[in-house]
């Protein structure tokens, strides 16, 4: 018996559809200089977008056209709200539109609604559905773990939430910490006193702060200890009350260090712990305290976990491909070792 002829699924049917917009000025901003934003959408989705006055004609496979329409509507709405767009926003809209079409809902956070984090210098909105979920956890939970690869916004969003709560007087201070574990270098080889030796390890936290607050406010708040940046070793014996506490690069803590840090949480405080378990720099044979904590505390009331994936990388698109390549190599290496 001859098998029935295979037909295309609805997402693989070639279609064309129109979109109409009221404001030609906003439509020009939507296209970008030299049509770079629309061209990027075309390239990412392998579709065609033609402009006819205040209308767009979008042609391609139906699933990709649907994603384009969802992303374009979100970007246009952003422009209507007086917010600007860039290549980063275009990529974010495409990511969130793709995810929403798979799950049936589009995250309003992209347009600054609901879960936007507001600081003195900018308004931060989610660029992936997982970022939106993470932002909600940061608002709702007292202890939050942000896990996943580099470039997913784990630390940046935690610092943004901390700054937002500080300027709104919801906490009295921010405490940012990192374990001083070297990735191949040695602290003793660096010039200067202890503070100068530690500063390079804490630079990503400084960078995030300066992105959220004017430079003079960062310096003033650091001088008054409203913002404190310290290595993990300085946390022992303290009780951190009325503070937003962040531990970055937590995969490089030992189990003893992690327990010590988590038990510093005091009254009126929140704690965010971020790390990537694929980038542990501890000596061979030393188990990561972050891995222990995720296994021991999962399911504990008041603790939230956000697990970022390769698809959540919001840096240069090449970073996503790099992360995937390394993950594939690690998987191949593990399989080879098991077979050996």
Structure commentary:
This protein is of the alpha/beta class. 44% of the residues lie in helices and 16% in strands. The protein has eleven helices and eleven strands. It has helices at 24-31, 36-45, 62-80, 87-103, 129-140, 154-167, 194-212, 215-223, 255-262, 289-297, 317-339, and strands spanning 14-20, 48-52, 55-61, 117-118, 123-124, 143-147, 173-178, 227-231, 243-247, 270-275, 303-307. The strands form three sheets. The protein has a six-stranded parallel β-sheet, sandwiched between helices. Strands 1-3-2 form a three-stranded antiparallel β-sheet. Strands 4-5 form a two-stranded antiparallel ribbon. Strand 9, helix 9 (255-262) and strand 10 form a beta-alpha-beta unit. Helix 1 packs across helix 3, helix 5 (129-140) crosses helix 6 (154-167) and helix 6 crosses helix 7. The chain is globular and about 65 Å long. 38% of the residues are buried. The model is unreliable at 1-9 and 183-187 (pLDDT under 50).
